[in-house]
Every structure is written in C-alpha cells, then in structure tokens.
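FW: tagging you since you asked about this chain on Friday. Here's the raw sequence from the shared folder, copied in full. Didn't touch anything.
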Amino acid sequence: MRCARCWRQRGRGFTLVEAVVGTAILGSVLAAVLLASARMQVQARRAAERTEACRVADELLESWWPKRDKMPLESEERVPGRKGWTWRARTVRRETLGGLEAETIAVEVFREGQAGGEPAARVEVMLPNASADEKSADAR
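HL: got it, structure written out here
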C-alpha cells in the first residue's frame, strides 16, 4: 500500500533529470532551426546576386550585339551605369565549324572586388572570326 501511494505522488511533477533532458532537446531543435535559417538566407543572397549578374550580362550583350565587330575582347572594365559590378571578356577558343572560322568569347560578370574569384555569371558567345567575315565579303 505504501509503495502504490509513492507512485501516485511521483506522477504529479517532473524530476530535475526530465527537465534537463527536455531543455536539451528543445535547445537542439532550436539550434537546428536557426542554422537552417542562416543557410537559407546565405543561399537566397547568392541567388539574388547571381540573378542580378545575369541581368547585367544580358544588358552588356544587348548593348554590344548591334556592333558585333566592335565587341570588346580581352578586356576588363566596370559596368557602365551599374555601381559595384565589373565585367571581363576573353577568348576561350577558336575553331572551324563547317568551313566557318569562329571564336568563343566568355563574358564574365563579377561583384566589384571579386574579379579574381569565381564570376557571379558567365556567358559564352560564339562569333565569326573577323578574317572570315572579310573573306566572305570579298567573295561576294
């Protein structure tokens, strides 16, 4: 009889061990949620930066495309009208495709200060070689 009364009285509250274990579980869940939130914010910031870099690259190519023969090659400058962005253009490869001489140009867009690192956006454009254009104009 005495033992049954002890069990009924014990069921009315928590022991210190139960409270500590509960707090530890709650703390670990909270830490996991905070870490996931921080990672999500970093990833969202990177995605927004890359989206903006794609817009910048699109604007650059759009401004260069009407005068493809004067497209800047092998150079690096700040993006006009876009504070904090730089671009770099360089020849990646030259090849002959079906008798047409062409070169592939890589246009890379960087956040200012990251020109030595990985570009925020990179677009490759294949252009006919200038000498090939002159040959075709002479043939006409």
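FW: DSSP finds three helices and four strands in the chain.
HL: agreed, and Residues 17 and 56 are 59 Å apart (CA to CA).
FW: great, closing this out.
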